[in-house]
Amino acid sequence: MNDALRILQRAAPVMPVAHFHSLEHAQACAELFAEAKVPTVEVTLRHPQAWQMVKIFKDTMPLAKIGVGTVVNRRQMLRAADEADFVISPGFSAELSILARKTLTPYIPGIATATELMAAMKEEHSVFKCFPAAAVGGVALLKALSAPFPDVTFCPTGGISLANYQAYLALESVACVGGSWIVPSEEELQKDRDSFLAMLKDLYKS
Predict the structure, then answer these.
(1) Domain of residue 116, CATH code
(2) Which of 6, 46, 66, 144 is deepest in the core (most CB within 10 A)?
(3) Which of 31, 37, 55, 129 is catalytic?
(4) Reading across the β-sheet that carries 65-69, which strands appear in turn?
(5) Does the annotation count 58 as an active-site position?
(6) Among residues 24, 42, 65, 187, which one is catalytic?
């Protein structure tokens, strides 16, 4: 079993796709996730202080696997190899794939079409982020791709919500889904932290 597949299986059923508005927001979410025993988190590089946020999660959640998402270039990949447990991209890059192998970094590339899937499989990938899942066909697309590519595993992300995530998880090819809907805003943390904590504990109960 490869490391990327282990990451997705560990993350099940939902990997938080986390974009924070401030370091304080990141710290509060890290503390919440630690209390709920969330096993895996993807911290996206969408904020100027994103790398500091990755460190916050690594320090606050030492037992979890902390990944870096939205990795799109060589510089980001090399830094993520040093500072995170795994890397996720919105698309596929052969260059990033080569760097991941050289640095022994679990890498989950993004795909949206059969052509992209075949290009990534040529670089010996079998575990993928499907992004943006809902916009490119959702459950129907993943069902269609699973027929000609029975040995691949997906983490669909983009447009996933409380209302539809179980439909994705029902697919044999889906190990987990990625979702921002389980990452509370600063306002939600202040108003209803206990409800989020209860939801997370229920989601990740074994």
Answers:
(1) 3.20.20.70
(2) 66
(3) 129
(4) 107-108, 86-88, 65-69, 40-44, 14-18, 177-179
(5) no
(6) 42
